[in-house]
């Protein structure tokens, strides 16, 4: 089962959980929309969902839906919506589900048919599993997606970024670019860390997202120059 290449797509991963993948993904959607491209966000697997009259909904997935144009059906944007706020494998086990790749590929094909570009947000860091026997590299490979790495700027980010870039390559992925995410205000040696990342990561920097206390609501697309 494969998805037709009717739209360009990319996969957003991070150096860890909580580094700003959703903020970066929303900013990418808006940046490409500003260039006149029909752009849709997708969060294939989301844990930590709330029950609504329409079904289980995830806050990050809803932000991607709101940023998208055209506005996709929620079930296509987030085919696997899981209640528990934990690793997807554990959240799926709690509701007796097995996460499989088929529904994701089918949903991506429907999104790609509507858009010029689909921004697919991953779960946690690159090596975080989707389910037992299913890892993010499987999804990236099945959809032939280039990868964009969100680097959370904090102590330890050099190691995390370098190891993640190596892991993406080792898993057969292609790192297309990276985005620095200022998740800590007044980070010591910020400029030194940025300069090191620019020298050592094997892909261009697409921008630096500044720290904002209201980053979930702010439009940060102007800080990005995606390739």
H-E order:
EHEEEEHHEHHEEEHEHEHE
Average pLDDT figure: 95
Strand content: 15-25%
| Class by SSE composition | alpha/beta
Task: Give an account of the 3D structure.
The protein has 227 residues and is of the alpha/beta class. It has eight helices and twelve strands. It has a single domain, classed as P-loop containing nucleotide triphosphate hydrolases (Rossmann fold). Mean pLDDT is 95; it is low at 1-5. The protein has helices at 21-34, 59-67, 74-77, 88-94, 102-112, 136-143, 157-170, 190-200, and strands spanning 8-14, 39-42, 45-47, 50-52, 55-57, 80-82, 117-125, 129-131, 134-135, 147-152, 175-181, 205-209. The strands form four sheets. It has a six-stranded parallel beta sheet, with helices on both faces. Strand 10 (147-152), helix 7 (157-170) and strand 11 (175-181) form a beta-alpha-beta unit. The radius of gyration is 16 Å and the shape is globular. Helix content is 34%, strand content 24%.
């Amino acid at each position: 089962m494969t998805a037709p290449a009717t739209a360009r797509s990319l996969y957003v991963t991070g150096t860890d959980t909580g580094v700003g993948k959703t903020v970066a993904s929303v900013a990418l959607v808006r940046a490409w929309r500003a260039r006149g491209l029909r752009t849709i966000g997708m969060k294939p697997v989301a844990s930590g969902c709330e029950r609504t009259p329409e079904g289980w909904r995830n806050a990050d997935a809803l932000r991607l839906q709101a940023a998208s144009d055209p506005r996709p059906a929620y079930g296509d944007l987030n085919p696997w919506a899981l209640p528990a706020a934990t690793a997807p494998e554990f959240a799926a086990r709690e509701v007796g589900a097995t996460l499989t790749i088929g529904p994701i590929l089918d949903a991506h094909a429907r999104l790609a048919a509507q858009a010029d570009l689909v921004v697919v947000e991953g779960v946690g860091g690159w090596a975080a599993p989707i389910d037992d026997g299913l890892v993010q590299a499987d999804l990236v490979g099945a959809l032939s997606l280039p990868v964009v790495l969100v680097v959370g700027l904090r102590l330890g980010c050099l190691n995390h970024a370098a190891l993640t870039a190596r892991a993406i390559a080792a898993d057969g992925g292609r790192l297309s670019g990276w985005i620095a995410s200022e998740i800590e205000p007044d980070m010591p040696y910020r400029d030194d860390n940025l300069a090191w990342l620019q020298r050592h990561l094997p892909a261009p920097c697409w921008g630096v997202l500044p720290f904002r206390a209201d980053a979930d609501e702010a439009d940060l697309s102007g800080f990005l120059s995606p390739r």
